[in-house]
Specification:
The complex is a heterotrimer.
Chain A lengths: L24 E12 L2 E12 L3 E5 L6 H8 L9 E9 L2 E2 L7 H7 E4 L10 H12 L5 H14 L3 H4 L12 H13 L5 E5 L7 H14 L4 E5 L3 H7 L2 E6 L2 E7 H6 L4 H7 L5
Parallel strand pairs in A: 3-8, 3-9, 6-7, 7-8
Antiparallel strand pairs in A: 1-2, 1-4, 4-5, 9-10
Helix pairs in contact in A: 3-4, 3-6, 4-6, 6-7
Chain B lengths: L1 H30 L8 H37 L3 H4 L3 H15 L11 H42 L7 H41 L2 H6 L5 H6 L12 H32 L2 H16 L2 H27 L5 H8 L6 H26 L2 H9 L4 H30 L2 H6 L17 H9 L8 H35 L1
Helix pairs in contact in B: 1-2, 1-5, 2-5, 2-6, 4-5, 6-18, 9-13, 9-15, 10-13, 11-12, 11-13, 13-15, 14-15, 15-18, 17-18
Chain C lengths: L7 H48 L4 E10 L15 H12 L9 H7 L4 H13 L7 E7 L2 H7 L16 H12 L3 E5 L2 H4 L12 H32 L4 H13 L4 H15 L7 H26 L2 H9 L4 H29 L3 H5 L20 H10 L3 H32 L4
Antiparallel strand pairs in C: 1-2, 1-3
The chains are: A alpha/beta, B mainly alpha, C mainly alpha.
Chain lengths: 274, 480, 428
């Protein structure tokens, strides 16, 4: 890996990076169980997530899809009383391995939340947050480069380039969500987790985000939790259906929506419950 | 006593009116073809309230203000010789006349024969006046009670909305209660401003606010000839500031870190143990802190500094060593440090509330970026909570400035303008206590200066509180 | 946007390089938090521990039990008050331990300094009641002088240089003899709990102050709680939302943060100088503390009322109850536990308040138990302040003990509040 060619170094596009070849799963979960106190929220989840594709997790509310998502970057650690069992391999490395620092893991696995949560700082500072704390870019010009690139890739640059010093909380909901995505990709993670990223947005803003997800798919492994089956059908290549803490089935999105293998999936996608 | 008996009679009478009105309304309800508007209880209560309240107000009012009215009336009719007396002597004379009139022992002031005659005469007048006033107030109360009863009973009719009438009375009572709080403020401001105004007649405000020397004792002995220098409050402000500064240097970091630890790191169990303990610390009366500062911390610090001083004497820092060897118990550092500890729970519980108001989603956002907890706190949570935390600090400063017992017991009385924490300093509150405990003459600038200090203290703390509460409110709205 | 691959190896390396330093910073930060908690709690332990350490010995006293021969030669039956009983007892004690007095009688005086004046008063009372006792012997029991007590408690030590302690070597010898003869017994100090202030530490107690505090607090509660609750009810349930009520609200919040000493100034100017309420009485103290507690009671009541869900109000109103009936029949009773908890806590705070009471003259020396709201009185925190200023060492011990009594009452009140909250707490 040669650093010197372009600034900023961390964002160097490199065909050599990301050793996993297409087809081989980027994330591979097996036997994942999650308990909140006494209550078990997930039962033996086995799921492979491919690289450079969007995997949608669908299912009724409380089915455990968000819980599973939060296992991948160990955000469940922050909930008192939560306990995770089983194995989740990211590039062959167990994320639950105690020797793996969650800081490092979370730097590699970005996350976008349900409600846009820009920090009460300027737009620039929001995007520069990750590169700053991880020491990816230290000098001001470097940072400016990183911020610009991230905003461009999140499709927000044109809208905000003239007001980078304004507070990020002043943007519209859809812009805030794209700002948060820019913040996540500014450190160039390997995986992006999205927890119902459009549920707080209007249809136009939603369309914008979906477009963005589609663009990002070319470079990242994306896992998205969504309530909307239409959205899952539009943006994802693979779909996994969760029900009552169990993974009912997973497969190519087209197959799940047209030829579900399980009657529960059939009932859910045809709107019998949800 | 008479007022009390009259009140009892009034209560009994209005009870009877209540029963009567209720019976009548009950009869009405039975007789009426259509249901009567209000229930008998409401009719009863309506009549009883009209009977009791106006009369009771008259009784209470004359009972509370009677003495004042009496004094004013009598003093207007005192003979020339008495009116020529000093204000204090005249007051004694008046009090004696009232005591005599009520058959109590008068003061032991010797009066010359002519004044003795005047005194007996005044006592006679007081007696006459008192019986007249008593008769007047009783008569007025009786008339009002009877009129109220008649009115209340006359309203017992089927269509009359007695309940609404009673509720209006109740509303008036509630309103009166909430106005009490406003009256408290008015009372504080009025009494402080009034007495300060009297003070500023003998000492100009600028000499008080910007004067560099505080020595009210000398002013008193100089027999009302007030030298302007003696009432310069700058040394008190400096002492107050120094102690506040030391207290905040202790309370701000410790309180803030305690709040951060409790809200961001501690397990629910730890919180459940530590928070009540901090509340205990907050509940300890300040006089207890004062005792601890004066008898434990003071001697301890002094011994420590003296020991360090003894080490340094004869060395290159000989001067410092000699100085440290002379340090006294009552130093600003002791009062400030103990006050700082007193403020820790105050700062931490306010900051805790404020930190908890920062939405969890911001923390999640930062943690998901791979920030450590401390980075999240430093770069996201604290900046977001900054206005609130600043407000908490301002409230703590206001507390420190107004705190009295710790400084009274541990700071000392020497008015000194210094920033050296090892010196003895005095504060505004200490001086108020010193000036106003024991016997006071309400005409001497010495006593009145306490109100000048009180007014300054009130103004400063009020300003801090208003600003802080404003900020907190804005901050709350932002995250609601 | 061209084909970009996440530079994951690079990212990993960059992040990993700083990870150690960042984790160290994290641990440091957490440590600061722990230190802060430790400082606060450590101080609490130190404070309470020190007070108990200084004060517990007050609850033990050393009593002298001895026989006194009421020598007719020294007591005039016609004027029993004229005799010096203290000296009489001291002389007989000296004789009893076999020490001869010198020609100036200085040894009797020194012995007298070891005995409480209470002994003499006891004899006087007995003789006054029954002059026939003169010429007979009486058995008496009273605490030793405070300094003598401190010697037995080990707080005055023989090893200290003689000129630095209040008792001479000779006096210490006598005390040892009296003790060896079995005249001195230790026991629970009932004097401290059953007497009021005194100039003699061994006869000083907290009863007067406790009663004064109780009278004052009852008045405070009787004024502040009803007025505060009704005011809060008005502001929360009835008041229109306009500039005036906003002003009242701001006003109340600010009043809660006004320094307590300012309330003392208010009390002095308004209650004492203007309304002629008697100085140093529980009446004026109670009035001042009631005004001081009012804002906190109002704030606590308002938050309790806010916690009652609107659905309760809507349900009552929908049944045709008037607004007043809704509030007084439904909302207020439901909010009552919260109201009472807040009220008790603010009363506990008022119990420990000192500064405003100094302003209204409660610092005077009051040796009796107050029997009315208007009689001169002192209260526990002020008693602590007065004793702390006393020069005798034995008073410091009693100051700490008085603090223990005060804290005990405060703990009881807080406990009551906690129990009330536990018992009636409702989650909506």
């Amino acid at each position: 890996m040669t650093d010197a060619q372009v600034s900023p170094p961390a964002l160097t596009p490199s065909a050599a990076a990301g050793a996993s070849s297409d087809g081989a799963p980027r994330i591979s979960a097996s036997g994942v169980r999650v308990f909140y106190g006494e209550k078990q929220a997930l039962f033996d989840i086995d799921l492979d997530v491919p690289d450079r594709a969007v995997t949608a997790l669908i299912g009724p509310s409380g089915c455990g899809k968000s819980t599973f998502l939060r296992c991948i970057n160990r955000m469940n650690d922050t909930i008192p009383g939560a306990r995770v069992e089983g194995r989740i391999l990211l590039d062959g490395e167990d994320v639950n391995d105690r020797s793996l620092d969650p800081v490092l893991l979370r730097a590699r696995v970005g996350m976008v939340f349900q409600k846009p949560n820009p920090f009460p700082k300027s737009i620039f500072e929001n995007v520069a947050y990750g590169p700053r704390i991880h020491g990816i870019a230290t000098s001001r010009p470097e940072l400016e480069g990183v911020v610009e690139q991230a905003l461009k890739r999140a499709g927000l640059w044109k809208e905000v380039s003239d007001r980078l010093d304004q507070p990020g909380t002043g943007l519209s909901g859809g812009q805030q969500q794209r700002l948060v995505i820019a913040r996540a990709i500014a450190i160039n993670p390997e995986v992006i987790l999205m927890d119902e990223p459009c549920s707080a947005l209007d249809p136009i803003a939603t369309a914008r985000i979906e477009e963005l997800i589609d663009e990002l798919r070319a470079q990242y492994c994306i896992v998205i939790v969504t309530h909307s089956m239409a959205q899952a059908a539009r943006v994802s290549q693979r779909t996994a259906f969760f029900h009552m803490g169990r993974l009912v089935e997973a497969g190519p999105t087209g197959d799940i929506f047209t030829r579900p293998g399980d009657s529960r999936t059939q009932d859910y996608i045809t709107g019998r419950f949800g | 006593m008479l007022t009390f008996i009259a009140l009892l009679v009034l209560v009994a009478f209005s009870g009877a009116v209540y029963a009567l009105a209720r019976r009548r309304a009950g009869a009405l309800a039975l007789a009426a073809a259509s249901p009567i508007n209000s229930r008998p209880v409401h009719h009863g209560a309506y009549a009883a309230v009209w009977t009791a309240v106006p009369a009771a107000l008259v009784l209470l009012f004359t009972g509370l203000l009677g003495d004042r009215v009496e004094e004013t009336l009598v003093s207007a009719r005192l003979p020339e010789a008495v009116r020529a007396m000093e204000a204090a002597e005249r007051q004694v004379f008046l009090d004696d006349a009232i005591s005599l009139a009520r058959g109590k022992a008068r003061s032991e002031t010797p009066y010359p024969a002519d004044l003795q005659v005047a005194l007996d005469q005044a006592a006679g007048e007081v007696r006459a006046l008192e019986s007249r006033m008593r008769a007047f107030s009783l008569a007025a109360a009786a008339v009002l009670a009877l009129a109220g009863a008649a009115w209340g009973l006359s309203r017992v009719r089927a269509p009359f909305r007695a309940r609404e009438g009673v509720e209006r009375w109740l509303q008036a009572l509630l309103l009166a209660c909430s106005v009490t709080a406003v009256f408290t403020t008015v009372g504080i401001v009025a009494s402080l401003v009034w007495e300060s105004w009297r003070f500023f007649q003998s000492v100009p405000p600028q000499a008080f606010l910007f004067g560099l020397e505080w020595d009210p004792q000398s002013a008193m002995y100089a027999d009302q000839v007030v030298s302007e220098g003696a009432f310069g409050a700058i040394p008190l402000f400096a002492g107050t500031f120094l102690i506040m500064l030391i207290a905040m240097l202790v309370a701000a970091p410790v309180g803030l870190f305690a709040a951060i630890y409790l809200s961001e790191y501690a397990s629910a169990r730890t919180r459940a143990i530590v928070k009540p303990l901090l509340e205990v610390l907050a509940g300890v009366p300040t006089v207890v802190y004062g005792f601890f500062a004066a008898l434990t911390v003071g001697p301890l610090f002094r011994a420590g500094f003296n020991a360090i001083g003894a080490q340094l004497v004869g060395g290159p820092l000989n001067e410092l060593g000699l100085y440290l060897g002379e340090v006294q118990n009552q130093m600003a550092l002791v009062a400030g440090a103990v006050m700082g500890v007193m403020l820790i729970p105050f700062v931490s519980s306010l900051s805790d509330d404020i930190i908890n108001a920062v939405p969890q989603s911001l923390r999640d956002g930062s943690l998901a970026m791979g920030a450590t907890r401390s980075e999240t706190v430093k770069k996201v949570v604290l900046p977001a909570a900054l206005p609130g935390v600043m407000a908490a600090m301002l409230l703590a400063v206001s507390r420190a400035v107004g705190e009295t017992m710790i400084v009274t017991m541990a700071a000392g009385l020497q008015a000194k303008t210094t920033l050296n924490p090892l010196e003895t300093v005095t504060t505004v509150t200490v001086q108020i206590v010193t000036l106003l405990t024991g016997d006071q003459e309400f005409d001497s600038p010495r006593t009145l200066s306490a109100f000048g200090l009180g007014l300054t203290l009130f103004a400063v703390t009020l300003m801090l509180n208003v600003v802080a509460l404003r900020i907190v409110q804005k901050y709350r709205e932002q995250y609601d | 946007m061209t084909e970009l691959r996440p530079a994951s190896d690079d990212l990993r390396a960059v992040v990993a390089r700083r990870l150690k330093a960042r984790n160290a910073a994290e641990r440091r930060f957490r440590l600061y938090g722990r230190i802060a908690i430790a400082v606060a709690l450590g101080f609490l332990v130190l404070l309470l521990g020190r007070i108990i350490q200084q004060g517990w010995s007050t609850f033990i006293d050393y009593r002298l039990t001895t026989q006194v021969y009421l020598d007719p030669a020294r007591i005039d039956a016609a004027d029993p008050a004229g005799a010096n009983y203290d000296l009489l007892i001291a002389e007989q004690l000296l004789k009893r331990i076999g020490v001869a007095d010198d020609e100036f009688g200085s040894r009797s005086d020194a012995m007298k300094d070891l005995l409480s004046g209470d002994l003499g008063f006891q004899v006087l009372d007995r003789v006054k009641a029954d002059p026939g006792l003169i010429g007979k012997s009486l058995t008496l029991s009273a605490p030793l002088k405070a300094d003598a007590g401190l010697y037995f408690k080990g707080q005055i030590q023989r090893s200290a240089p003689e000129e630095e302690r209040p008792l001479t070597d000779q006096q210490l010898d006598w005390l040892d003899r009296l003790n060896a003869d079995g005249l001195v017994k230790s026991g629970f100090n009932t004097t401290f709990l059953t007497r009021s202030d005194s100039t003699e530490p061994e006869q000083a107690g907290v009863l007067g102050a406790v009663v004064g505090s109780a009278l004052m607090l009852i008045l405070t509660a009787a004024l502040a709680i009803p007025i505060g609750v009704l005011a809060a009810t008005y502001l929360e349930e009835f008041a229109p939302k306009n500039r005036w009520t906003d002003l009242v609200e701001v006003n109340i919040n600010n009043l809660a943060a006004v320094p307590s000493i300012v309330y003392g100034l208010l009390g002095l100017a308004v209650f004492i100088n203007w309304m002629n309420v008697p100085r140093s009485s529980p009446l004026v103290g109670g009035l001042v503390l009631a005004l001081m507690s009012l804002p906190t009671v109002i704030i606590a009541t308002r938050s309790a009322l806010k916690a009652v869900p609107p659905s309760i109000r809507e349900a009552a109103l929908a049944l045709g109850a008037s607004r007043t009936q809704t509030v007084f029949h439904h909302v207020l009773p439901l909010a009552l536990p919260g109201v009472m908890t807040g009220a008790i806590l603010s009363l506990a705070h008022a119990l420990g308040e000192t500064a405003p009471l100094l302003m209204v003259g409660m610092v005077s020396f009051v040796p009796g138990v107050p029997d009315a709201l208007t009689s001169a009185s002192t209260v526990l925190p002020v008693q602590i302040f007065i004793w702390e200023n006393a020069s005798e060492r034995a008073f410091h011990e009693r100051t700490a003990a008085a603090i223990m009594v005060l804290l005990a009452f405060m703990i009881l009140m807080n406990l009551a509040a906690v129990l009330l909250r536990r018992r009636f707490e409702r989650r909506w």
